[in-house]
């Protein structure tokens, strides 16, 4: 679909989750409410029918992916767990 091999992000998730936040922050795809098959299908068709939209969102998704790599996420969760454990122990 996109010429560079990167794909836009389409997610059926709660609006308050981290996936939705990242998707909005980087404007790299679309978030629809869970269980709303019609909304998800509509967004899939939007991206499928508009190659420039797909390419633009795909490029932004790549930037988002680089900013949120798994090593950084693991380190952030480990730090959080250590802080919570220290607070509980203290």
Explain this structure.
- It is a single chain.
- The chain has 90 residues and is mostly helical.
- It has one domain (9-89).
- Helices cover 66% and strands 9% of the residues.
- It has four helices and two strands.
- The chain has a two-stranded parallel ribbon with strand order 1-2.
- Strand 1 (9-12), helix 1 and strand 2 (29-32) form a beta-alpha-beta unit.
What is the number of beta strands?
Answer: 2
Mean pLDDT: 89
> How much is the radius of gyration in Å?
17 Å
Helix percentage: 55-70%
Alpha-carbon distance between the termini?
A: 53 Å
Proportion of strand residues: 5-15%
Secondary structure tally, helices:
4
SSE string: EHEHHH
Arrangement of strands in the largest sheet:
1-2
Q: Supply the number of structural domains.
A: 1
Structural class: mainly alpha
Largest sheet: number of strands, sense, barrel closure: 2 strands, parallel
Low-confidence runs: none
Shape: elongated
């Amino acid at each position: 679909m996109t010429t560079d091999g990167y794909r836009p992000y389409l997610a059926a998730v709660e609006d308050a989750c981290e996936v939705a936040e990242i998707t909005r922050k980087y404007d790299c795809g679309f978030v629809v409410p869970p269980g709303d098959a019609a909304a998800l299908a509509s967004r899939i068709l939007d991206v499928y029918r508009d190659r420039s939209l797909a390419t633009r969102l795909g490029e932004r998704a790549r930037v988002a992916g680089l900013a949120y790599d798994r090593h950084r996420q693991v380190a952030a969760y480990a730090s959080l767990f250590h802080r919570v454990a220290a607070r509980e122990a203290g």
